[in-house]
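Pasting two entries for a bug report.
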Amino acid sequence: MGHGVGDGMGHGVGDGEYGVGDSVGQCFWVSVVVVGWVGLGWVGFGLLVVVVAAAAWWWWQWAVWVAGFLCSLVWWLWFVWVGGGVISQSKPVTALTLQTNSRWIVNEAGQRVKLACVNWVSHLDTMVAEGLNNQPLDAISKKIVFMGFNCVRLTWPLFMVTNNSLGSLTVRESFQKLGLSQYISGIQAKNPSIIDVSVIKAFQSVVSNLGANNVMVILDNHISQPGWCCSAYDGNGFFGDIYFNPDLWIKGLTQMATLFKGVPNVVGMSLRNELRGQSQNLPAWYRRYMPKGAEAVHIANPNVLVILSGLSYDTDLSFLRNQSVNLTFTGKLVFEVHRYGFTDAKIWEYSNANQACANVVDIFMRSTGFLLEQGWPLFFSEFGMDQRGTDEQLNRYMNCFFALAAELDFDWNIWTLGGSYYIKQGVTEFEETYGLLHWNTSEPRNSSFLERLSAIQSPFQGPGLREANPHQVIFHPLTGLCVQRKSSLEQLSLGSCNVAEAWSYTPQKTLSLKGTNLCLKVVGLGKPAKLGNICSDSGSHWETISDSKLHLSSTIGNATTLCLDVDSSHTVVTNTCNCLSNSRICNPESQWFKIITSARSPSSIKILEDPSPKSQKSELIVKVPDEDFILN
């Protein structure tokens, strides 16, 4: 995720074109050649001399090329004696240690680092990261970067590190033991370096390669016994269950924290996924185990964030409202929460969409979201949806979620990266409909969803953003886009939130374009909304209505109330407000807008092309600003 030499994305020094007679330009160009060859050592440098001499003979630009050669020599000496001698895309760059500042996660400079993570499953029966039979490890890491993620939540089973008979298995032996020999040839072909190393070494290789691609890692203890999670009766749910020995858990956390101490891209450890079951209880959580696990991790590896989960499948942290966790350290504690559409399935099934969204947000705020208000970082470490997009209730939940995620701007992790598992609950090649990628092609299952997701990958708020004066943007959850002007016209359309218009929502309920005398105005039913400079009439006053508070309404001369909407061309229009009644079958999502506070600088965006050689089309993804990266 860094930008410059060796960023793994095809962007670095030397992208420009320089004339043959321009000595400065030639120096720059030849320097790039040196940088490219220096990874080969002295042999590479010798070859460079031949290349430069041949070029000089060909073009007869002796003076220019001598100057370029001398400049290149300086570059080479600097990289060898000062920079460590090698420039390599596989060599990770030192990361800044993360810490907490009130509700924010920040780097050592105090600038916000937003965790925008994707889950990579490595806790199932094989104890091997999924997809390595289909794609080279480095290709997967680069695809993660291309999709805009700066972080991976990498899951691991406790017994992999506490049971030597499991942890010492080679990758080949692990698959053979499970009767999954059909995957071995694929792994050997795509990732030959890991096929005959232990599963723990293979896990380390995944972490290392993610680091080489400047991707942060959260290590998540997902389960004890390798396999699918989670059932209330699987013996892995709470301290004291048959597969959940607390002392062994502390031992495993300590081993894992120690193993990755000093690994620069491992920035956090999640103590345990989805505590649950009939034996869960607050005294055990508070007085015995979670603080003890947190202390053990911090002692073994004081650099990492320590992430604590709640009860009831990590949906409930309400007990923290009036009773904090007592720890000996500060500046490292983060809480996590999970919530899916199916978590509140009955609400979505039996309620009007506006009512359902309001109810789900209220439950979230009462059970976990209040921690943000109290000044604690909250990591939304699992959410997701069926990437086929066929479940209407889940789709509505995601629209509600996007509005909440943009407004609260919390850190998050989406479930999950891959579209299948080697084996899940006895079924091989099990399809994961929540997976973002087809493993066999490494192409997205739902590219429009990824485009929406890009809207919340970079921070809207937090310490260190370039924009000194926060403003507001009008966010459209259904598309992940924001309201902006159509070129120089008065009409408005949807576009990237990274270059969205800066608005001010005044106490008079006008939406004024910041720095101008223009405001948002309603024209009529089915007509485009426009900008105008008369901002005192009823058609320029905008109220948030409906239970969800996601409708923006205004009135025209005959007292008709209209709501902001979007047509098929992404033009912002006004239509009759939809789904304000109790109907369960209406669909209001095109009319859902959220006014959110933003400190983004509209000019600070990066556009990168897909590095995948198999890509058949030119894809563009808006990347987060440089300041949001922790690996430079």
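Entry 2 (this is the one that rendered wrong in the viewer):
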Amino acid sequence: MFLLAGFLSALAAGAVLQALEGDDETARDDEDETGRGPSPPKLTLQAADPDWMQTLGLVETGDGVLVGGAGHDLLTGGAGDDDLAGGDGDDTLRGLTGDDTLYGDDAAEAAGHDLLQGGPGADYLAGNGGNDTVTGDGGDDRIFGGDGDDDLSGGPGDDWITGNAGDDLLRGGAGDDDLSGGSGNDTLDGGAGADSLHGGAGDDILRGGPGDWLDGNEGDDRFEIMPGPDGIAHITDLAPGERILVAAGAGDTLLSVDAEDGDAVILLDGVAVARVLGAEGLTASAIELVTAQDEAAAPG
């Protein structure tokens, strides 16, 4: 059973309505202690188990600041440039419109499994500790996973995404994105646009297409090439034993390699799809042609 530690009776901009246990009066603050204007409305619920403390926050207008507590919080921004921090617990933070800043946890060592959703603005999203799911949506976003195995998606816009520690999934989406896996065994998918993919330490999978640059860095990496009509992919640091896979379209059957200026150019049915820098001795036998049937048969 929840005890009411804070109460929201109206969602008017700037209304902060709080009530303590018992017969305390509800108070409204139209201006915070800094004199910068009204604070956002919020609702705090507390269960007998302190781990289930919840904070519900909503910003309707203006630039708001919402800070969660030790429990599982739901914080939602509004039309302004909002700052949202979940604190401990498994939190959900939604920036909506504006250029928002969202922190899943207060510090990198915290372990909440948070859901962060940006919006159409240029957002700064940091999951920090825990296994987080972070989505930038529209705009040119900066996304950090932190510790844990994170799922990070940029969406439309030219995004900058880094996984940091853990085995992360990074997806750039549309736009010219910069993806860095960090440590751990990461999967990087550039999506549409001219992207830069950096695997970092660990055994990474780098998936790119026309206009993309793929740099595995340390570890035993795998490069997956998704051919398209508007250019070729570039692999910058193929090491001995690392794999290259090329996705075949309907009717694609012949894979070949040409040596050119010290590099290896991979061709699919005579059309260049990728260039491997400094790999003049690469042969077609070292490259795998993957069909849709092969992908369907692969273990999940």
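Dev reply: Rendering is fixed now. As a check, the viewer should reflect this: Confidence is low (pLDDT under 50) at residues 1-53.
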